[in-house]
Design brief:
The structure holds 2 protein chains of 2 kinds. Chain A is α+β, with helices and mostly antiparallel strands. Chain A has helices spanning about 5-35, 40-45, 130-140; strands at about 55-60, 65, 70-80, 85-90, 100-110, 115-120. Chain A has a 5-stranded mixed β-barrel with strand order 1-3-4-6-5. In chain A, strand 3 (about 70-80) and strand 4 form a beta hairpin. The chains are: A alpha+beta, B mainly alpha. At the A-B interface, helix 1, strand 6 and helix 3 of A face helix 2 of B.
């Protein structure tokens, strides 16, 4: 190996180390701000005295959806531990359903009510044809919701 | 800057091009059939999930192209072998196009599933950053007339930008995102049914054939251009 090549290799490795450390520090300190939504447990631990817009995500609780004729929907979002009631006025996305993932954007009022301005349906990583789900349900092997 | 590469190498590449084009067309026809007719709809999303067959391969090859770009820039930076500059310059616009396809198809998919065209979550934002990194790399070459300086600055950008690749890959695991976590990973069996996985792999293969075809054509163009600029320099000297 010629000397200039060795020199550049050392330069490259040194700058790689410096870069890696600085990126690690940035990402580590930003970790709370990069989060797109909070889970119900995280939201209750959070100091929400300031009424800023934030996002809450989790599963829609079974049997909690109540839709009124004037387009107001009430439902609960849970993460297995905590549950938060949500109120939303507007049209719900097509994939919105019980036991399915959802992300709501809005304001969290102190008395455990979340006023949602926007509702986003979150889908998971599972893809299956409907017939497979039906046969799994028939044989009692269906693990999902 | 002296190029040791011979024209005959690229003539060999050129002879493969028709074969690559045929491979691309045939695999796209087979893949499209299975993606649109030969596979079932998803049990929740219905037919809208079929956009996955374009979206997912595009995102894969966008990330792979950037890795090729960053690795060849690193090898150029250390060895100063101009061939690796040609590889980097050839792959950059192809990677940019794949990133754009992933972003646009993702947006079209997002509207019926999530209910929005775009959100600023970690996955989508880091993918948009990847697109800007590709653009910055391409524009740096055009903006700086001194070729040696342009090589150094663009290589530095490509190498620093590589940190974004693992961030894109793991963004869905590290942070809460609206984007779903990976359906296919090395550690667990895929959470996509086989009837959908096969069309996905055919489409991925088709996109890869397209990528290689474009790359071999672009590599030849970059080689000829570098020869022209070298000859021009000789005349001026």
């Amino acid at each position: 190996m010629t000397s200039p090549v060795k020199k550049r290799l050392i330069k490259f490795l040194l700058s790689l180390i410096v870069l890696a450390i600085s990126i690690l520090i940035i990402v580590y300190n930003l970790r709370d701000n990069i989060v797109y939504f909070y889970s119900p447990s995280e939201l209750q631990d959070l100091n929400t005295s300031d009424v800023r817009i934030l996002r809450l995500g989790g599963l829609v609780s079974t049997g909690s959806i109540q839709s009124e004729t004037n387009g107001i929907h009430r439902f609960k979002i849970n993460d297995g531990n905590e549950e938060i009631s949500v109120k939303f006025e507007g049209i719900l996305p097509n994939l919105f359903a019980e036991d399915k993932g959802v992300v709501v954007e809005g304001k969290y009022i102190k008395d455990e009510l979340f006023i949602a301005l926007k509702v986003l349906a979150k889908h998971d990583e599972n893809y299956m044809p409907p017939e497979v789900i039906d046969s799994l349900k028939q044989t009692g092997n269906w693990q999902g919701e | 800057m002296y190029l040791k590469l011979k024209k005959s190498y690229f003539d060999v590449l050129d002879r493969f091009t028709p074969f690559l084009i045929i491979m691309t067309i045939v695999s796209f026809i087979i893949g499209s059939y299975f993606a649109l007719y030969g596979s079932p709809p998803d049990y929740i999303q219905g037919d809208s999930m079929r956009i996955m067959y374009v979206h997912v391969p595009s995102a894969w090859w966008a990330l792979m192209s950037y890795s090729v770009l960053a690795v060849s820039c690193t090898i150029w930076f250390i060895t100063r072998n101009p061939f690796f500059n040609l590889i980097a310059k050839s792959i950059a616009p192809i990677g940019a196009v794949f990133t754009l396809i992933a972003l646009v198809t993702g947006s079209i998919w997002g509207k019926p599933t999530w209910g929005v065209w775009w959100v600023w979550d970690a996955r989508l934002t880091s993918m948009l950053l990847l697109f800007f990194l590709y653009l910055a790399y391409i524009f740096l070459w055009q903006a700086i007339s001194n070729k040696d300086l342009a090589s150094k600055i663009s290589a530095a950008l490509a190498m620093i930008g590589f940190i974004n690749v693992p961030i894109i890959k793991f963004s869905v695991d590290w942070w809460n995102t609206l984007h779903q976590p990976a359906s296919i990973s090395k550690l667990s069996s895929p959470s996509i049914d086989e009837s959908m996985l096969i069309p996905l792999f055919i489409m991925a293969f088709a996109s890869l054939c397209f990528l290689i075809t474009m790359f071999s054509v672009r590599l030849r163009i970059e080689f000829i251009e570098s020869r022209i600029s070298r000859l021009r320099q000789k005349i001026y000297d």
